[in-house]
Amino acid sequence: MLSRAFTVTRCLPLAAVFAVASANALEFPLPPPGEDIVGEVQVIQAKYEDTFADLGVANDLGYLEMVVANPGVDPWLPGAGNEIILPTRYILPPGPREGIVINLAEYRLYYYPKGRNVVYTYPLGIGREGWSSPVANARITAKTPNPGWTPPKSIREEHAADGDPLPAYVPPGPDNPLGPYKMGLSVPGYLIHGSNKKFGIGMRVSHGCFRMLNHNVLKLASMVSVGTSVRIINEPYKFGRSGGKVYLEAHAPLDDSGDASVVDKHTAVINALLKNDQFADLRLDWEMLREVVAAEDGLPVEIAQPDQAMVTTEPAI
């Protein structure tokens, strides 16, 4: 049995292994019908001055997804010459490939522009514990460049209690927490917006709104229109097909009440598979499945071969 780490490395094309980081937005052609995976994992060599926060900004990746994809590497001083994984391969979220789809567990937004066979994807900062972002079907209701910010009473009270009082109004500019653009949602009180801080994208840091890197929010705002659908989901385990194989991409579940047990996580994955008819013909690699769920590193890994006799009895966990 090959280890999960070896399997991931083995699957990297040579072009990806020696890829150079790009500052361009993550734009991918949509896969053909019946396929679900876009992009390729990249591996780069760190420079002395690199940090995960800086590499994330340069490559449209969030801080936490960089950390979990590179276990054991110091995110603030990776070390000159060390290999760093850029987790730029994704299983597309379940459901219709239209409008904006936000997967909270992934800290990531996907945008499917109408009439184009491509998908854009961007990292997000989402609501922290106690201020969770909603799961909902929504739409873009307004677009505002250079927004000012009127902090809600609840946020002003929180800051005052922490000895950090906020003004009643923050004008547009570099100190504005909404950054250079905001987009209103039909879910009252929630926005997609930029930020005056580069750190925190790809983490639970907001009061429920969706924070983006400023160059990302400007790019997204230039493409979407008022009325664009926004589907917000919370799917820590994504399954997809590619090249006749089935993959699992696992993320740490969001749970304000405490971490789920390993058994609970395995049960959630198995239940998700059983509920999906398109995976009814699988011969699952249970050992690999357990490794992927335990790692929670957001990298798609092969877990099954289709069109074989389905294994109906799971080994003991």
UniProtKB/TrEMBL annotation:
GO terms for molecular function: glycosyltransferase activity; peptidoglycan L,D-transpeptidase activity. Pathway: Cell wall biogenesis; peptidoglycan biosynthesis. Residues 98-233 form the L,D-TPase catalytic domain. It comes from the Bacteria. CDD domains: YkuD_like. It holds the Pfam family YkuD. InterPro entries: LD-transpeptidase, LD_TPept_cat_dom, Transpep_catalytic_dom. Residues 142-168 are annotated as: Disordered. Residues 1-25 form the signal peptide. One of its GO terms (cellular component) is extracellular region. Coiled coil: none annotated. Keywords: Cell shape, Cell wall biogenesis/degradation, Glycosyltransferase, Hydrolase, Peptidoglycan synthesis, Signal, Transferase. GO terms for biological process: cell wall organization; peptidoglycan-protein cross-linking; regulation of cell shape. The active site is at 193 (proton donor/acceptor), 209 (nucleophile). Belongs to the YkuD family. This is L,D-transpeptidase ErfK/SrfK.
